[in-house]
Design the sequence.
């Protein structure tokens, strides 16, 4: 057996899961820091997370009319 096979994952990111940011549409690849809450990750950055409040406020006010 090759040494790489014994050690497991060696940087082939094509097999990692990915999602699309709900604000900007950018594709996000799984990160180890997101392992515990990957199902809840929606935003690619703090900037998009801060934009979500203005986008959701604008879209909800339009639905109530």
Sequence:
């Amino acid at each position: 057996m090759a040494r790489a096979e014994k050690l497991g994952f060696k940087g082939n990111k094509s097999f990692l899961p990915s999602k699309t940011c709900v604000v900007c549409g950018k594709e996000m690849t799984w990160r180890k820091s997101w392992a515990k809450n990957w199902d809840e990750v929606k935003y690619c950055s703090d900037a998009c997370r801060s934009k979500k409040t203005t986008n959701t406020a604008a879209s909800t006010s339009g639905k109530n009319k």
